[in-house]
Amino acid sequence: MIQIEHVSKWYGDFHVLKDCSTSVAKGEVVVVCGPSGSGKSTLIKCVNGLEPFQEGTISVNETSVGDAGTNLPQLRSRIGMVFQNFELFPHITVADNIKLGQVKVLNRGDDEATDRSMVLLKRVGLEDQADKHPAQLSGGQQQRVAIARALAMDPIAMLFDEPTSALDPEMINEVLDVMVELAQEGMTMMVVTHEMGFARKVADRVIFMDEGRIEEDATKEDFFGTPRGERAQLFLSKILQH
Amino acid sequence: MSGGFDWNVIFKHIPFLWEGMQVTFLLTFLAILGGILGGTLLALCRLSKFSSLAWFGGSYVNFFRSMPLILVIFWFYFLVPMLLGRPVGSFYSVLIAFTLFEAAYYCEIIRAGISSIGQGQVQAAKAIGLTYQQSMRYIVLPQAFRNMVPILLTQGIILFQDTSLVYVVGLKDFLVTADIVANRDNRLIEMYSTVAFVYFVLCLLGSLGVRRLQRKYAL
Amino acid sequence: MNYNWNWGVLTQEPYYDWILSGFGWTLATGSAAWLIAISLGSVIGVMRTTDIPILRTIGTVYVEIFRNIPLLVQMFLWYFVLPEIVPRDSGMWLKRELPMPEYSTAVVCLGMYHASRVAEQVRAGIESIGQGQRYAAMAIGLTPVQVYRYALLPVAYRIIVPPLTSDFLGIMKNSSLALTIGVLELTAQTRQIEEYTFQGFEAFTAATILYILITAVVMAAMRVVEKRTVVPGMISLEAK
Q1: What pLDDT score does B140 carry?
Q2: Residue B96 contacts C where some CB pair is shorter than 8 Å
Q3: Which site among C134, C138, C140, C149 would you substitute to test the A interface, given the most A Cβ atoms closer than 10 Å to its Cβ?
Q4: What is the CATH number of the domain that holds B75?
Q5: Of chain B's two ends, which shows fewer C-beta atoms within 10 Å, N or C?
Q6: Cβ atoms within 10 A of the Cβ of C8, count?
Q7: Distance CA C174, CA C184 (A)
Q8: CB atoms within 10 A of CB A13
Q9: Is residue B215 situated within a structural domain?
């Protein structure tokens, strides 16, 4: 479903991604972890073309992301993305946040979009918040709305960029629960996160990145059992301590 | 339009234009000085604990900021000779008008700058035993001004452009001298283009200089 | 001080009519120019925030040209120089056929000058929103135009209501410059009254009061607009 081949990226002189290659098969859940600055957020933003890259290729469902001829907005409408800071649109209601993409990109009718939005809100447990504005919701609630917003586009894959890093601890689980459900339903997911509990539960593979490189790319069992690299081991030990 | 672009008319009158430019520079410089001084006093009024001073400062600023500069120029062009009981050169009336007008704008810049110096500094000054005046003079104002320099300079560039309005009372600044030549020799295009070009270059250099200053002393 | 007070001059004909007419022209000039300023200014402001280099350059050049030349000089360029440097037929049209030439020129001049200021405010508003919102809008599949239309601009405009209002007041005040090319707006009319009657105090007071009135009404309107468009949890840039 997602193929990343020899991708390199520079920000000016800074070499932020170094020859990264990996793939995510349909229905697979891949967790990407690593220290700050390792390039994991950047990599995931390259997958749906939010960030450009200078070398290599990325393709999603056979469509090349880096190709000049690719219709990026159309491609992005098929990939859902959830951001660390939720990024709900503050000036419209929760329901309208979920409707916007459906109406303006997928050209769904207003009624159909509204119905679908309510279904999704119910799914994430927030149907009574439909008419509120994002700022009136807690962080955990906002992130669940963000997930609903992404799901409203009927995506073939979902990208998560540290979805719980900006949340207070007591709200992390409500978001992770939604993500676990999604995984169990067979959604193709690429998740950048520090939440190793989540990884152990639903991940198929775990990728460890450090300084722009993919250092480890192993099945969950192998990764948590005996990671091959020193750095991954060090990272794991630090993370698993708390 | 008679003939091509006549560079000569510009070069011939450079001394005359330069005289006009000197008036522009002088007016700008004096108005900036007066404006900053007046603006500082007004800012202190607005920030003062005495409600009458605060009210005065606020009313002054709101009043002058509601009015077009041209109207202020007319006001003082009319008032100053009358109050003094004798004719006064337009330069002095205009200078007073500009100073009082700009003081309102400088006041707001300075007030924001002073307010941006947190309470902590004032308390530290008090703790050493400085009076209000001393803490203002030695601790708050120096820091505030350092932060404000770029914005004060930018306002100065705006003032420099605003001086062109003395046209309405015929004071011989750069624009008016160019206008005189333009009408006398029927060379409007050449003269107005020159004025525009000169202002453009000076103001652009000025604002680039301010930006460089900002980057260098970024606080 | 030797001055004969005569407040009655303000209610006398024709001076009373002059004041009203001048006030009307001030409002007409300012409002028309504002329409140009806000539409053109928004486009240029948006251009400066895209990542298409040529658009950014055009936007930057526009802003730098219009804000480094005094408004009065710009007015003269439009009124005196433009008709002479365009092709002969257009020049003729401008000099003979253009309806209300002084007014039209003043409106275009003011509009394009203030467009550069609106552009800067729109740019500041959009830049204060942050990259994340832009990414979120792109991630749903909105095209660049849609990103601006549905995610960035609605928020940016709300944020810049105060400085935009200041600028609107600025345009009303700058309409006074049109007197130099013959538009008989408020300041011009009161100056005329002063020249005819020597009642400068009364005449200029009338103008002063009317300008203060414009400011008061606009500020009150701004507060209403702010209240109605406020979004819970949003910041606002300061009025300048």
Answers
A1: 84
A2: no
A3: C140
A4: 1.10.3720.10
A5: C
A6: 10
A7: 13
A8: 5
A9: no
Q: Greatest CA span in chain C, whole angstroms? A: 75
Cis upstream peptide for C99 (omega within 30°): no
pLDDT at residue B205 is higher than 60? yes
Is the distance from CB of A7 to CB of A19 less than 8 angstroms? Answer: yes
Instruction: Please report how many Cα atoms fall inside a 13 Å half-sphere around the Cα of residue C237, on the Cβ side.
Output: 22
A113 φ/ψ angles, rounded to the nearest 5 degrees: -65, -40
Gap between the Cα atoms of B9 and B183, Å rounded? 12
User: For A45-53, what is the mean pLDDT?
Assistant: 92
Q: Tokens representing C187?
A: 């300041």
Residue C144 tokens read as 């660049």
User: Is B70 a member of any domain?
Assistant: yes
- Euclidean distance between the first and the last CA atom of chain A, given in angstroms as a whole number: 34
Q: Which residues pair with A81 in a beta bridge?
A: A159
Report pLDDT for C134: 94
Phi first, then psi: give them for residue A201, nearest 5 degrees: -75, -55
Could you tell me if B68 lies within 8 Å of chain C, comparing CB atoms?
yes
- Residue B160 CB coordination number (10 Å): 21
> How many structural domains is chain B composed of?
1
At residue B1 the predicted structure's pLDDT band, cuts being 50, 70 and 90, is very low
Name the residue among C2, C187, C212 with its Cβ closest to that of B70. Answer: C187
Is B45 in a helix, a strand, or coil? helix
Strand order across the beta sheet in which A157-161 lies: A79-82, A157-161, A188-192, A29-33, A205-210, A213-219
Q: How many Cα atoms within 13 Å fall on the side-chain side of residue C191?
A: 21
Q: Do chains A and C touch (3 or more CB pairs under 8 A)?
A: yes
State yes or no: chains B and A have 3 or more CB pairs below 8 A. no
Predicted-complex ipTM score = 0.89
Q: Is residue B182 part of a domain?
A: no
pLDDT one digit per residue (tens) for chain C, 240 residues: 567 888 888 888 888 899 999 999 999 999 999 999 999 999 999 999 998 999 999 999 999 999 999 999 999 999 999 988 888 888 888 888 888 889 999 999 999 999 999 999 999 999 999 899 999 999 999 999 999 999 999 999 999 999 999 999 999 999 999 999 999 999 999 999 988 888 888 899 999 999 999 999 999 999 999 888 877 766 666 565
* Alpha carbon distance C27, C35 (integer Å): 12
Question: In terms of C-beta density within 10 A (0-12 exposed, 13-18 middle, 19 or more buried), how is residue B192 classed?
Answer: buried
CB contact under 8 A, B195 and C73: yes
Angle at which helix A169-184 crosses helix A139-151, to 10 degrees, equals: 20
The C-alpha of C221 sits at a distance from chain A's nearest C-alpha, in angstroms, of: 21
Mean pLDDT of the region A54-70: 90
Answering whether pTM is above 0.90, one says no
Give domain status of residue B123, yes or no: yes
Measure the CA–CA gap between B65 and C169, rounded to whole angstroms. 9
Domain span at residue B84 reads: 21-174
Chain C partners within 8 Å of B207 (Cβ)? 68
Cβ(A67)–Cβ(C130) under 8 Å? no
The b/e string for C113-133 (b: 16+ C-beta within 10 A; e otherwise) is bbbbbbbbbbbbbbeebeeeb
Q: Where are the domains of chain C?
A: 7-229
Interface of A with C in 140-179 (CB under 8 A): 146, 149-150, 153
Structure tokens at B14: 């450079």
